[in-house]
Design a protein that fits this description.
alpha+beta, seven-stranded antiparallel β-sheet, 16 helices, about 35% helix, binds flavin-adenine dinucleotide
Amino acid sequence: MIYDKVDERIVSELRQIVGTEDVLIDGEALEPYTHDETVGLSAQPEVVVRARSTEAVSAVMRLAQRERVPVTPRGAGYGLSGGAVPMCGGIVLSLDRMNHILELDKDNLMLTVEPGVVTGDIHRAVEAEGLFYPPDPASLDSCTIGGNVAEGAGGPRAVKYGVTKDYVVGLEAVLPSGEVMHCGGKLVKNVTGYNMVQLLIGSEGTLAVVTQIVLRLLPLPKVQVDLLVPFDDFQAAADTVSDIVAHRIVPSTIEFMERDSIVAVEALLGKEVPHHDATAHLLIQVDGNRQEAVDADFEVVGELCLEHGARDVLVARDRPTRDRLWEARRMIIDALKHASPINHMEDVVVPRAQIPPLMRGVKALADKHEVRVICFGHAGDGNVHVNVLKDDVPDARWAALVPAFTEEIYALALSLGGTITGEHGIGATRRGHLTEALGEAQVAVMRGIKAAFDPNGILNPGKVFP
Ligand SMILES: Cc1cc2nc3c(=O)[nH]c(=O)nc-3n(C[C@H](O)[C@H](O)[C@H](O)COP(=O)(O)OP(=O)(O)OC[C@H]3O[C@@H](n4cnc5c(N)ncnc54)[C@H](O)[C@@H]3O)c2cc1C
């Protein structure tokens, strides 16, 4: 596609739409919008526009459509696949000023929000009312719900509660033409036409700009207990996960952290994690409404862990102790960046029972490429974050190593019945591998969908498609 440049006339129209202070054009102000959290990826926007209403988003899209200028929607810029990076320049449309919780409907257990609300603020707002929004990406105190919808974000609680797509029942979205579309609503059931809500979830800002979101809520479980369980053998930890599920217990989370990820967190936080020399830790959360039922479940889980050779089972019942355990888990990505500022993260997902062969394959790849690889992730749902650390690998070898490693790990995940990304998305970084993961026919249908929404390709170009 050939796009037009943003000129003075367009900037002046944008100022009329959103006001002068919400149009950024000078270099320093634009810098934060050149990248997201993807290491080593950046591109320059020509202008940044901060929208504060659906009407403003619609007017910006009409203008961009008329002038054939690309638009990249942006939440908090916490993505890990370059989705918010303006690969073709043009307008970055920031939604972070649309950050209001519009309505908590306790009769219907629904919450209506603008896209720029930070996910953790949703948690706090509904939990204060005894309600529960389960999706919990580790970035929840920074990322926005609009970014979560666009990425189909997940989190540790996916094991029991599912991911963002399982809670979004209604969307207001602005099409690339500027038209406003309302899909779904405060409805538990709805089979009227194609399921446009689910089509937009995970569409990575390439089909429409989401301007309002209706979320389904649950009652807040009254009791939560966390167990931190160190193992000396990775296979034993993996077997424990299968055994817990075979005992018909579904914890709300089953996370795993390799020893080196714990060591990296300790170095960053300056705090010691118990049994930090263990090969792997499982972080298991059991929740429910009755203390006796939760106690019974966590006792079975604890016994199963010990039967499989766990060194210990550390139990955290109160909020401060539980928060300390989770702090270590949530800091891993930052800790790995601290350990090696240049690193490469993959996000493959396999059926839960295939984690041990996946881990064996990853270790073989690390040996083959003579590079440090540290894994952590969601043992309960098969999603493993594989981090390749540059350390002191020379630049030229690193430049060849990353694509080779990526190709091999994708082939491994696909051969195990998995796929190339479980929660971080295709974005700009994985688009070259979409066809390998989905096949020609599916990618062709997706291209048809994209063309139906965005015939001129102005919305988030350079993403998803090879
Ligand atoms: C430390 C760390 C931990 C993380 N942990 C997790 C995790 O546990 N689980 C997980 O799933 N992800 C995780 N992520 C990735 C990231 O936080 C998620 O992808 C998140 O959903 C991004 O939200 P954001 O607001 O930052 O979106 P951005 O990065 O700003 O944008 C992401 C994509 O969404 C599009 N977009 C944003 N807002 C809109 C909108 N209103 N309408 C249409 N498109 C829009 C953008 O164009 C882009 O394609 C983590 C990232 C970091 C840095």
